[in-house]
Design a protein that fits this description.
138 residues; mainly alpha; 85% helix; elongated
């Protein structure tokens, strides 16, 4: 089970790298001037590749987390709160894919300022998840 736990932590770190960086690319995409199609296309290519890379990492991280949950038989309110937050992260990941498709269609209606705030959500959830997992407060 320690191998599963180590893999879970590693995959979570890798998934979060994508969750932190993809919205940052959205900030840059929202700032691209209309007369710079090469920059826009390059950022779209980067975002698309990153999304395709981070999706399996997130899936594996969640699956290994479930394996740990059922393998160790963890119980307590902290785990339910953590699971809820992981659900929010999965929804955020899916929403990032929707936002990416909007950019690919040229249909983004959000400003770079909006994406700067959007970019901070996974950071806040990460803090909460780590504190719940380490402290198990309830």
């Amino acid at each position: 089970m320690l191998i599963v736990k180590a893999l879970h932590i590693s995959l979570v770190v890798a998934w979060f790298a994508g969750l932190f960086y993809l919205p940052r690319i959205f900030v840059n995409l929202a700032m691209v001037p209309a007369d710079s199609p090469a920059e826009h296309d390059r950022l779209l290519l980067m975002a698309g590749k990153l999304f395709k890379f981070m999706t399996p990492l997130g899936i594996l991280a969640v699956l290994l987390g479930l394996w740990l949950w059922f393998g160790f038989g963890f119980a307590g309110g902290w785990l339910h709160a953590k699971t809820f937050l992981v659900g929010l992260l999965v929804a955020y990941h899916v929403h990032c894919g929707i936002v990416l498709k909007r950019f690919q269609r040229g249909a983004n209606a959000r400003s770079h300022v909006w994406f700067r705030f959007y970019n901070e959500m996974p950071v806040l959830v990460l803090f909460a998840v780590v504190f719940l997992a380490v402290l198990k407060p309830f």
